[in-house]
């Protein structure tokens, strides 16, 4: 997993609440057996005016000029600013892959759906929770200021605006440690293989029908 | 000893170890696998030279991509076919239990797990699918996980997780006639909102939940995720134990008696404390119909489409305006005046035998209305289909003008050929009414099987209680 330490990047504001994972990556693209290549289809139904299918040349499709991601001022954005309950719905990790493949490394929102939140950490995408009032302020600033950038510092756990205002955020210590060091969960868990085997031995006597 | 919630008991029984910050390694008893969220996980195992920790715990089935007719011709879409074949190769390579297309036991993963007894009380159950919350109906801790976690569970038999908060939703009293488990859970989501359960494990209790069959409890727990909760659960009682008994994967002989004794403890202690308690009056619940593009946008069938101008929260009002425009509805319109183009009876929410019986009872002796272009029933599994046919339910649907299909996820998410065309309006027994969920530009209204059947025969959202 790619490490995350600090990021200074352009912000793209997506002013909708309850953005679901069907909207982030529509179902037809879930047929892929790979983890890559989802970037062109991030927010596919909103981003293009014509229907998309896997295997198409998406660069030739008609884009929706009104959709925020298609506006030239947000080209190259790596921080997505969103509203509450971002990533609700299906457990598809393809939603996180699509955001990452597109180039996003941070999503800022007042709240996230649990499974999406969890999936993000496994892929080096930082889902960052700030108070609704602060998110409101960031929306206003991002929309009013072309080239609006934020600095996200995971070590210090702060988001800093261009005017120097600094907002603290919290990330679970374990997740933060993994993200800062780009650690692979599975490798870490397997270091506790003895504990797992000991649990199994105990459980086998308590609940033998499970084995 | 401190009183424990059902969630506390399930959690405590599965903790392998806990980190300083409270992140626990939770042991997983049952891992259900389908073709969409597993290929990258199996690829990960191969690339790192890892093997499944306990292959015996895995049950795999293709469901999302499978066609619901002309199965003898295989899967026409080459991309879908590749995904199903990839699952087949992976289960063969790693030696996992598998119910392929064509096996009578094949069906929607959340229907076949309980049907086979692969889901048992007291288990931890995971699957790379958010509707894994379904299995909590058995007094199990069941959660949807992402593909990285699928790989993690395959490789380690554990999930890294922090304990969630606990919520009790008590549905007090009894529901009226014509009101089903689906209406109960839609009313709950309408009450607490799609993010109301975020960060919580929800236990559903109260007389109205106790009165439900296992199939009804599964419908309720299935949609816990639509209220934001990763896990939903119901305490074990005789209904649970009677359902499990004799199923292929259920314990037998002495193990059965030992298991039942342990399962009898799977309820919250009387004085257990929850972080949040919500009471719902069952008698006040009417048949429900969603009007918008989020499951919380729900109304009783006697209701009228709401007016965003009457909502003060501007973000919420804008969401409502967008939903009204997408759904092609106007504020103030009576729900029962909304006409439909297609009917879908199926999905992991409502494709079990009881659901099909309830719909058949309404359809019997009637015909699909002239304005309905397609009405289809997609049973949840081969065994559900077989039993329904043994009861003659297929004839009732076919005689009325319905199509009777092969089992799978089908038009719940339209990964196969079953889908809505742009602008088409569907009465659907599934779980999500998101934009384009059932097909690009399609308009979904979530309802119970009985209400979907009533919509089929009247061509609109008729109150099923007034049909008889």
For this entry, give a set of tags.
heterodimer; A: 211 residues; alpha/beta; Aconitase, domain 4; 7-stranded mixed sheet; 8 helices; 32% helix; 14% strand; B: 468 residues; Aconitase, domain 3; 2 domains; 5-stranded parallel sheet; 15 helices; 19 strands
Describe this entry's structure for a reader.
The complex is a heterodimer of chains A (211) and B (468). Chain A is built from eight helices and seven strands. Chain A is an alpha/beta fold. In chain A, strand 6 and strand 7 form a beta hairpin. Chain A is globular, with a radius of gyration of 19 Å. Chain A starts with 5 loop residues before the first strand and ends in a 5-residue tail after the last helix. Chain B is α/β, with parallel strands linked by helices and 468 residues long. Helices cover 31% and strands 16% of the residues of chain B. Chain B starts with 5 loop residues before the first helix and ends in a 10-residue tail after the last helix. The model of chain B has no long low-confidence stretch (mean pLDDT 97). At the A-B interface, helix 4, helix 6, helix 7 and helix 8 of A face helix 2, helix 3, helix 5, helix 10 and helix 11 of B.
CATH architecture label of the domain at 9-145 in chain A: Alpha-Beta Barrel
Q: What is the arithmetic mean of pLDDT of chain B?
A: 97
Q: Give the CATH H-level superfamily of the domain at 9-145 in chain A.
A: Aconitase, domain 4
What is the assembly state of the chains in this entry? heterodimer
Radius of gyration of chain A: 19 Å
- The number of helical segments of chain A is 8
**How many β-strands of chain A, per DSSP?**
7
What is the SS-derived class of chain B? alpha/beta
Total domain count of chain B: 2
Q: Supply the CATH class of the domain at 9-145 in chain A.
A: Alpha Beta
Q: Per DSSP, what share of the residues of chain A sits in E-state strands of 2 or more residues?
A: 5-15%
Outline the biggest β-sheet of chain B: 5 strands, parallel
Structural class estimated from helices and strands of chain A: alpha/beta
> What's the CATH architecture of the largest domain in chain B?
2-Layer Sandwich
CATH superfamily of the largest domain in chain B: Aconitase, domain 3
What is the CATH class name of the largest domain in chain B? Alpha Beta
């Amino acid at each position: 997993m790619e490490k995350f330490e600090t990021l200074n990047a352009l912000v793209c504001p997506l002013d909708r609440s309850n953005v679901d994972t069907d909207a982030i990556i529509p179902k037809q693209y879930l047929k892929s057996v790979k983890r890559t290549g989802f970037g062109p289809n991030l927010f596919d139904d909103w981003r293009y005016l014509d229907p998309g299918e896997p295997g198409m040349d998406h660069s030739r499709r008609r884009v929706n000029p009104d959709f925020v991601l298609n506006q030239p001022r947000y080209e190259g954005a790596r921080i997505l600013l969103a509203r509450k309950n971002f990533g609700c719905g299906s457990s598809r990790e393809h939603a996180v892959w699509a955001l990452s493949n597109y180039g996003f490394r941070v999503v800022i929102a007042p709240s996230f759906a649990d499974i999406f939140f969890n999936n993000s950490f496994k892929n080096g995408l930082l889902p960052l929770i700030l108070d609704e009032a602060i998110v409101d302020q960031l929306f206003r600033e991002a929309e009013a200021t072309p080239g609006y950038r934020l600095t996200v510092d995971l070590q210090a756990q702060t988001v800093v605006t261009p005017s120097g205002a600094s907002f603290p955020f919290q990330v679970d210590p374990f997740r933060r440690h993994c993200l800062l060091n780009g650690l692979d969960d599975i490798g870490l868990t397997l270091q506790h293989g003895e504990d797992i085997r000991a649990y199994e031995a105990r459980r086998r006597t308590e609940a033998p029908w499970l084995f | 000893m401190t009183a424990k919630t059902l969630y506390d008991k399930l959690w405590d029984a599965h903790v392998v170890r806990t980190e300083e910050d409270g992140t626990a390694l939770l042991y997983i008893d049952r891992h259900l696998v389908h073709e969409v969220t597993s290929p990258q996980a199996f690829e990960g195992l191969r690339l790192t030279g890892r093997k499944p920790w306990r292959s015996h715990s895995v049950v795999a089935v293709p469901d999302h991509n499978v066609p619901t007719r002309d199965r003898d011709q295989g899967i026409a879409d080459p991309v879908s076919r590749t995904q199903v074949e990839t699952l087949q190769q992976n289960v063969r390579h790693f030696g996992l239990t598998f119910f392929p297309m064509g096996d009578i036991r094949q069906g929607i993963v959340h229907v076949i797990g309980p049907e086979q007894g692969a889901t048992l009380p007291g288990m931890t159950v995971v699957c790379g699918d958010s509707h894994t919350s379904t299995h909590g109906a058995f007094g199990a801790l069941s959660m949807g996980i992402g593909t990285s976690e699928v790989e993690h569970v395959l490789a380690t038999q554990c999930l890294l997780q922090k304990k969630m908060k606990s919520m009790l939703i008590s549905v007090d009293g009894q529901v009226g006639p014509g009101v089903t488990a689906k209406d109960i859970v839609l009313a709950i989501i309408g009450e607490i909102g799609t993010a109301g359960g975020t960060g919580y494990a929800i236990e559903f209790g109260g007389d109205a939940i106790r009165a439900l069959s296992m199939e009804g409890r599964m419908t309720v727990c299935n949609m816990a995720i639509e209220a934001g909760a990763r896990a939903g659960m119901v305490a074990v009682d005789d209904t649970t134990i009677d359902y499990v008994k004799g199923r292929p994967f259920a314990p037998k002989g002495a193990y059965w008696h030992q298991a039942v004794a342990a399962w009898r403890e799977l309820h919250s202690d009387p004085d257990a404390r929850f972080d949040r308690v919500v009471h719902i009056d069952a008698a006040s619940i009417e048949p429900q119909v969603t009007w918008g593009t989020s499951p919380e946008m729900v109304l009783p069938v006697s209701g009228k489409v709401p007016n965003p101008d009457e909502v003060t929260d501007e973000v919420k009002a804008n969401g409502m305006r967008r939903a009204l425009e997408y759904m092609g509805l106007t504020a103030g319109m009576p729900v029962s005046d909304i006409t439909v183009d297609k009917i879908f009876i199926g999905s992991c929410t409502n494709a079990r035998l009881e659901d099909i019986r309830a719909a058949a009872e309404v359809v019997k002796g009637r015909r699909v209305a002239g304005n309905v272009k397609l009405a289809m029933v997609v049973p949840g599994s081969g065994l559900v289909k077989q039993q329904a046919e043994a009861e003659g339910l297929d004839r009732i649907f076919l005689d009325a003008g319905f199509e009777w299909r092969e089992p799978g996820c089908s038009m719940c998410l339209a990964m196969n050929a079953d889908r809505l065309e742009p602008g088409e309006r569907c009465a659907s027994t599934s779980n999500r009414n998101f934009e384009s969920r059932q097909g690009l530009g399609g308009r979904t209204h979530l309802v119970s099987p009985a209400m979907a059947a009533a919509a089929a025969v009247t061509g609109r959202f008729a109150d099923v209680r007034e049909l008889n």
